Amino acid sequence: MRVLQQGLAILLSWCLFIVTARDASAYQTYRPNSQPAQAAQQRPEQLQQLVAPIALYPDALIAQILAAATYPDQIVEAQKWLQQNKNLQGDLSAKEVDKQGWDPSVKALTQFPAVLANMNQNLAWTSELGDAHVNQAQEVTQAIQVMRQRAKQAGNLNTSSQEKVSTKGKTIVIEPAAPDVVYVPQYDPWLVYGAPLAMFPGWYPYSGLFLDGPGIGFGLGFGIGLFAGFGWGWHHWGYDWHHDGRVVYNHNTYISHSRTIVNRNNFHGGGSNFNRGGSSGSHQAVHGSNVSHAPAGVHSGAFSGFSHGGVARGNSFRGQSSFGGFHGGGGFHGGGGFHGGGGHGGGGRR
Fold first, then answer.
1. Three-state secondary structure of 98-119
2. Is residue 193 within 8 Å of residue 185, measured between CB atoms?
3. Which of the pair, 168 or 330, is modelled with greater confidence?
4. Within 10 Å of residue 194's Cβ, how many Cβ atoms?
5. What distance in Å separates the CA atoms of residue 120 and residue 69, rounded to the nearest whole number?
6. Distances (CA, A) of 163 to 32, 196, 232
């Protein structure tokens, strides 16, 4: 009997040991304090594709766009507000914008309603841009400069009556030609840089900013004088190309406090930003001659699992494209030349 009792005791001890070891292993795997896996960084060519639609914009406007892209939910709110307040003009509009609870960068983009409408129309791209700016600022800066170099080599980036293009060392700087008017260039981001570029999945051109062809054109000039008295106006923004790609706001490094864009380097689960391998899935791998416009309410193909304020694919605010945005408004001084192949064509293109 004693032998049998000893055998049972040994058997129970082994069972207890096995269960304890299994639970300990599970705790080691899933305990909350474990270090999260590092999410993959976007490759240079992916970042170049991402910044292509804005790389040829004036420096201060790029600063506003990158900062505002970290608040895609506020982009949606601001776009809706503009649509509902089309009757407000000039200083009255600026005063009402100033009362809103948006980030200064989002308020600043109300100076450029076409730019804001484009970001609202392409929310997936906007959030991707904001995510990259938060997590890979220096690489985003390099990507912008690479694309400017390509456009310059293709003969499509030159000083004009609308903007001043200068080179400081290896850095290409783009500034407005006039102190009180900013022209936003119109171009096809998949053709203007020379060799055709792969299209960002689900990206749709906005009619006020897109030019069908390989060159650059200018349409409306946006007056910035009316916004000078507000803390978020044009002259409060800049881009420091020489210190790891800093967006500058009021002479200091801009820091986003958005809760929408997740810092994916500290997010457990992660996931690739570009879920498409070497091509753009059902979209064209290389830009074709014509771009079709999707109807209102159609979901962006690559990011169809969108909900406002949510997090999709584990790292950022993705989205359904919000088509049919606010068109026109806020601009004056029409005209401007068409620039292509290093030459200047006649007349303005809109």
1. HCCCCCHHHHHHCCCHHHHHHH
2. no
3. 168
4. 14
5. 10
6. 53, 25, 22
Q: What is the spatial distance between Cα 313 and Cα 134, in angstroms, rounded to a whole number? A: 17
Residue 289, classed as helix, strand or coil, is coil
Nearest CA among 176, 181, 184 for reference residue 119: 184
- Strand 237-240, strand 252-253: pairing: unpaired
Q: For residue 224, count other CB atoms closer than 10 A to its CB.
A: 20
Question: Which is nearest to 260 in space by CA: 67, 61, 18?
Answer: 67
The answer to whether 100 and 81 have CB atoms below 8 angstroms apart is: yes
pLDDT > 70 fraction of the chain, expressed in percent and rounded: 63
Q: Please give the Cα distance from 249 to 257 (Å, whole number).
A: 14
pLDDT at 125: 97
Where do we find the tokens 């409306």? 220
pTM: 0.69
CB-based contacts of 27, cutoff 8 Å, min separation 6: none
d(CA 240, CA 248): 7
Strands 343-345 and 338-340: antiparallel
For residues 106 and 251, the answer to whether their CB atoms sit within 8 Å is no
Count how many Cα atoms sit within 13 Å of the Cα of residue 247 in the half-sphere of its side chain.
25
**Exposure pattern of 8-38 as b/e (b: 16+ CB <10 Å)?**
eeeeeeeeeeeeeeeeeeeeeeeeeeeeeee
Q: Can you tell me the distance from the alpha carbon of 310 to that of 262, in angstroms, rounded to the nearest whole number?
A: 11
Q: In sequence order, which residues have a C-beta less than 8 Å from that of residue 69 and are 6 or more positions away?
A: 75, 119, 126, 127, 129, 130, 133
**Spatial distance between the Cα atoms of 116 and 119, rounded to a whole number of angstroms:** 5
Rg of the chain over CA atoms, in angstroms?
25
Cα–Cα distances in angstroms (integers) from residue 134 to residues 88, 101, 263, 339, in the given order: 33, 21, 7, 33
pLDDT digits (tens, 9 = 90+) for 75-110: 999 999 999 998 988 888 889 999 999 999 999 999
Q: How far apart are CA 204 and CA 290, in angstroms?
A: 12
Give strand pairing partners of 186.
Answer: 217
Is the CB of residue 165 less than 8 Å from the CB of residue 145? no
